[in-house]
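Notes from hallway chat w/ T.B., transcribed later so I don't forget. T.B. wanted the structure written out for a chain they're using in a teaching module, and asked if we could keep both sequence and C-alpha cells in one place. Agreed to drop them here.
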Amino acid sequence: MSSRFVTGRDVFTGQPIRIAIQDHRIQSVTSGAEVESGWLSPGLIDLQVNGYGGCDLNGDTVDPDTVIELVKSLAATGVTTFLPTLISAPEEKLVRALRAIAQARSASALARYAIPFVHVEGPFVSPQDGARGAHPREAIRSPALAEFERWQSASGGLVGMVTLSPHWPNALEFIAALVSKGVLVSIGHTHATSERIHAAAAIGATLSTHLGNGVASTLPRHPNPIWAQLADDRLIATFIADGHHLPADTLKAMLRAKTCDRSILISDATAFAEMPPGTYPSAIGGTVELQANGRLTMAGTDLLAGAALPLKDGVAHAVASGICSLKDAIRMATYNPGRLLGDRGAIGPGAKADLIRFTIDEDEQRMRIQSVLIEGKEVL
C-alpha cells in the first residue's frame, strides 16, 4: 500500500512537518517542509461525552443509530476517540444503553474504533444535593459488584471506566475489584472525606472526574474533596474548560497545582451541545435552558445541567483566556488521555494516524477544524 502525506505546523514544536501514513499508522515525520496553513495535532480524545447535537446517550430511547450518528458528529469537531458516558439511572436503563453502544460498535467499524470502551458516571455517587449535580437522587445507590457484572454481561465487557464517590462503606472493596479487572476508577460527585479520597487512590483509583464540579455549593475552606484530590499525585484530574463550569482563575490555579502532566481536558457534552439557544425537555434534570453563550442550566435556576460546547472549544477557551498555552491545552486533550487508552494521542513513527488540522480564533474562542483523519482515513 502506498503512503499518503499530511502537512501542517506541529502544535507541540511550532515547526512545519510532513507526515507519511501507511497501514493506518504514521510511518515517518519530516520537519522543515512547505506546509498548508493550520496547526497539526493528534485527534482530540474526550473521556466524557453524554451526547452532542441532539444525540442523547442518556435518553429513554438510545439505539445503535444514535450512537453511530454521534460518532460522526463528534469526528467533525476533531474528536477521533471518545468515551460514551452514561449517568446514574435505573439498572435496566443503563443496560439498554450499554447494549445499544455495543450494537453500534458491531455495526460500524468507525464506531468500533472511536469508542474503545464506555464510561459509567454513577450510579454509585453521592446522594447529597450539590455533590450529585444533575444526577437524579432516586437513581443513586451504593456500589454493587453484581450490578457491574450485569453491565459487562449485557455489553460484552464494554465498561472500562466508572466514576463513583468513595464515601460509601463498601467503596474501597468495590474499587479494588474493578481495578483488578482493568477498569479505570475515577472519583467524582462526592462528599467524601480527605481520608477516604486518599484511601481510594491508594487502592487504585486513578482519576478525578471534572474536578471542581460535582461538589457541594459551599465547602470548608481547608479540608474538602477538591484540595484532597488536587494534592494527591496518584490522581489524574479531568477538567471542563468551557468557561462555565470553572472560572478562568480557578482552572488556571488548579492546573498549576495538578500540573499539565496530570491533567486532562474533557467536554462533558450533552445532547444540547451546539443546539440553538432555548428551553428543552431533558431526560436528566427535567427542563433545561441553553443560553446563547453555551451555558446549560436547569430551567429557572443557575445550576448547571451539563455542558453544551464540544472539546475543541474548551481547548480554544483555555488558550484565549490565558489559562494555558496551546501546546499544553492540546496535550491535555490528546496525549494525556491517550496514555490511559493506549496507542493514541501522539504524533510519531508507529503512532495511530488520528490527526486534525485546525486554526484557533481567539476572539471567538473557537477552534476551526480544517480536516480530520481517523486511522489515516479522511473523515472531514
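Follow-up for T.B.: The two ends are 22 Å apart (CA to CA). Might be a good example for the class.
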